[in-house]
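Pasting two entries for a bug report.
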Amino acid sequence: MNFERDDFIISTEPERLDIDFIWRSLNTTYWAQNRPREIVAASFKNSVCFGIYTKESRQQVGFARVVTDYATFSWICDVFVDEKHRKKGLAKWLMACVTEHPLVKNSVSLLGTRDAHGLYEKYGYVRTELMRRPRQQEEVSSPKR
């Protein structure tokens, strides 16, 4: 699925994703710092990913990921726009495309944020308190017997 506006394209085509750009960008965020590259790449396989690209250079400049059961539930995560392309309305356009996507539009949709409540509230999200269980880290040392 592709959407076009001005000098940009939003696409859900997995082969267009720039894994290195996404990984580097996520490592600058409060929610995904130090997330290993292989985990970032693996997360794409079980998600619908939205990339924002410049029309001219086809360079990726933004991203959002939707984890879904393809019927009743969706979780919006890893939303960002590269600093050089902020203040152009791209995050709003990205969220409009995500929330209108058939897999999200008719599902219960959740997300978590510390600082972008105003953006998400424009698309129908309501501030609530969520429970969270962090990812378990593999043990570095061998267990003692």
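Entry 2 (this is the one that rendered wrong in the viewer):
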Amino acid sequence: MISIRFKLSLWLSGLIIIATLIGLFLFESMLRDAFHDSIINRLEEDLEHIIIATRLDDGELVIDQSQLSSFYRPAYSGRYFQLNLPDRTMRSRSLWDAELQIEHLQAQQKRVWQAKGPKNNDMQLLSIGIGAPNSPNTATLTVAQDLSIGRNVFSEVFGTKLAINIGMLLAMIAGIFIILRQSFKPVNQIQGALAKLREGEIASLAISQIPAEIRPLAETYNELLAYTAKQIERSRNNLGNLSHGLKTPLAVMQQQVEALGLSHPDAAIAMQQQLDLVHKMIERKLAAARITGDMLPAAQLAIPKDFDSLIQTLHKVHHQRHIDCSIVNPRQISRIPIHREDGMELFGNLLDNAFKWASTQVKISIDDTEPAAILLQVEDDGPGVEPAQMALLTARGTRLDEATMGHGLGLSIVKEICDQYGFELQFSRSETLQGLNVSILINQ
């Protein structure tokens, strides 16, 4: 998914590019109109000057070119005039041997157009009809200007404007990216803070470093973290209090069972088995409470720190046996996407069962099978489980061996947690250790 910063950069850059193109188009149109108007104005002034320089000399119409601009003298200078009389044509010296193709006009009639002139260059022409109204003896005076020189000037001005605008456009786009990068730095810091929350390094977000626009969201998030932490602490305390509170009634019941054994030994043995089961369940819950400790509500399971903590605790619980527990993590995966307390209970149960059934070795393998999946396996070198009995492993309260509380209640809790998070739980025989292999596929 495209980030907000990149999307803003694209939108703002696009808007600036569009605005620049529109500005260039308008500037080019205005410059072209101004260029055309300036030429027309100059041609109108030339018409007036030529009319003023025209006089009758011995009954013959002549144009005194000494009163005209010197541009009309050099051949093909770019500025021309031509007077078309009924019987003859008078031209500026600049036309040399060329003649303009003129359409005869009536008196006071004007015409503005463009045509090819000397050297096949484009010209702007302005003609006016001279004479008495409704008289057949009218003349047509035309002035013309070569457009090539003006177009060169136009190209230079527009090219300079284009270069300046492109430079400003690139500077503004670079400025947008720099400003957005600086503006989103606090968001990047929040991402880092959330990563530390997942790792359990901090307990809440530092509000003072968060921009005012998203500070209410961070404050609400901190309040939710605090509330969740209190709920977790309350639940853990209630679990510990319940487990400790049950010890006294169980001790009394133990005495009663021992007294009952004198008169009804069979009933006493059955009750003693149930009491032992309750004792073990209480010890497991107390051990779980010790394992979880003071955890942050947003923390995820960290590797290998949390697994090392579990392994050390289980070594203390099973101190009478020497179990070698190893962790294989070739991809150096640093965390599991599960709440740390749930993860400690999930893998605590798995490792506890593995420690109980293992002869000497337990192996934890962590690897990624797909770009968005993690495969975690817990293997032991114990006797394993027959394929026909593997479906019973997660049945609550079911024990495959009455002498050992192993693959029963603990694995049912494992299944409940996996179902809650959408993990895939599978049981098979270990290919390397020949014991039970519990596989959990975690889709991130």
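Dev reply: Rendering is fixed now. As a check, the viewer should reflect this: Residues 32 and 183 are 42 Å apart (CA to CA).
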